[in-house]
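Hi R.,

Quick one: here's the Adenosine deaminase sequence you asked about.
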Amino acid sequence: MSFKDLPKIELHCHLDGSVRPETIIDIAKKEGVDIPSFDKNEIKRQITAPLECTSLNEYLKAFLVPNLVMQSKESLKRITFELFEDAAKENVKYMEVRFAPVLHTVKGLEIQEIIQSVIDGVKDSEQRYDIKGNVILSCMRNMSSDKALEVIEKGKAFLGKGVVAVDLCAAEEEGFCEKFVEPIALARKYGYRVTIHAGETGIGKNVLEAVELLGAERIGHGVFIKDYHEAYKIVKKKNVVLEMCPTSNVQTKAVNSFNEHPIYNFYKDGIKVTVNTDNRIVSDTNMTKEFDIVSKEFNITYEDYKQIYYNSVEASFTDLETKERLKELV
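And here's the predicted structure, written out as tokens:
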């Protein structure tokens, strides 16, 4: 089975973890940005996390350099376009890209300008390639709930025009959901869909709270429901979809090795799993590689692949017309 030739859908991909090294260098030169090196190999080394990472926090260090060159409307639009271009070339037909607008305000950009620039990059790629996309606005868990409210308020105008959902991301601590009950409730009221990073670093209870307190429809990672029965039960009962990212999960030590990953056990037990990259450059991966890994470790069949693909279609935050078109591809 050649996964490169099969149509694919990606629901969990971070913009700032998917920036080409040569693009970082080019933008830095054009915009006079001070970066650690202008050698492509050295930049690639700094923005690619090793498989032997010790933790999520070490993994997150790889995002420092890309964000230096993501502070202008032109760079955000270009980087988004290139991400979708890379995805389209491996037959990804639909992708939801997520990013935290507050990280791109360092040089004075307004949040609305940032969101529009990313949407423009998506639209440009749709004109050029056979791919569709939408945008998820991430709020940083290490920032205040007021900052999350600001992003949600300012992103509201883009709902139905490229923005589809809100997310919480960054380092994971136990009990983070309580802090964000108000902003996420407001987001749901406005019409945002909800996906939350949770259960990535050994805290299965966070998944339970993300569903119960925040109304999460999808969970980013969710690996540690395997160790927390109440979270496992609610995910299965409510058909909450897991956005799983095998390579990233090994890097962040959510699991120690690919063959320990719970994705196939979850799948066989009826939990709705999807396969994603998380970060194409930071994890040195793409959708083809991720499916190759899952296939090699768990011997998935074409029927398994189709079911995971359909899970991704159903879980996507796009319109019914796009979902029907995507279903017809397999």
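Residues 8-327 form a domain with the TIM Barrel fold (CATH 3.20.20.140).

Cheers,
M.
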